[in-house]
Amino acid sequence: MTPKLAAIFTSHWNVYQKIITYNYMRHREMAAHSSEIFAGVKTRTPLKVLDLGCGDAQPIIPRLQQQPVASYTGYDLSEVALQFAQENLSKVNCITQLRQAPMQQFDEIEEGTFDVIHSSYAIHHLQQHEMRAILQSCFTRLDDGGVMIVVDIFRNDGQPREDYIEEYIDNIKATWQMITPGEQEEVFYHMRQYDFPVPANDMAGWAEDIGFTVTTHRVDRLHTMLVLKK
Ligand SMILES: C[S@@+](CC[C@H](N)C(=O)[O-])C[C@H]1O[C@@H](n2cnc3c(N)ncnc32)[C@H](O)[C@@H]1O
Q: For the structural domain made of 7-229, what CATH number should be given?
């Protein structure tokens, strides 16, 4: 069964575009760090890149232009986001493949291995058993020396899900001034219904058990990148 998708990722993608434009989820800081990670991958040139929950692919495009890339494969459930992705990726000089499918199924659909697997603000939509399974699939499908970059929202250790969500919502009310009150309500509904962040230390521990070497890069209390090296 295809998972249900929130309206903010279907009919109201423009709200998410505003969130990126005003850097409310720290995409700029994440991009600066992931630029260094991409540059450090020495598996092969050009790189094969997989992006899980790619959205409109806008934030990753500079990474695909900074060094030789053979292919970019993006997974997303949202038709609207993938239409924007198609348009945005026309600037990129590599083979691009977009799949409207659950990221949980990439291992059944794709052939071969990747040098970089990227997932930004998407894995928190999965349940914990799915997160662990996708980390295992990613480990299997990365070349030796390859890297998985997980940008996401994470609870703090011991913090209940509801407390994290309400803390995030308080932050939105205080700082997301360019998002109208009506749009904010939509984000709050989305978070309460669809977001299931885990503590970063839990995900790091699962990844280490699988065989990854993990580095945690905390941009601020609410936004974190895990770098998982094979
Ligand atoms: C917050 S957006 C992030 C988009 C982009 N990666 C970024 O950082 O700007 C989350 C994306 O994950 C997608 N998504 C949610 N659950 C998914 C799933 N199970 N499989 C594939 N995509 C999913 C949504 O459609 C949405 O485009």
A: 3.40.50.150
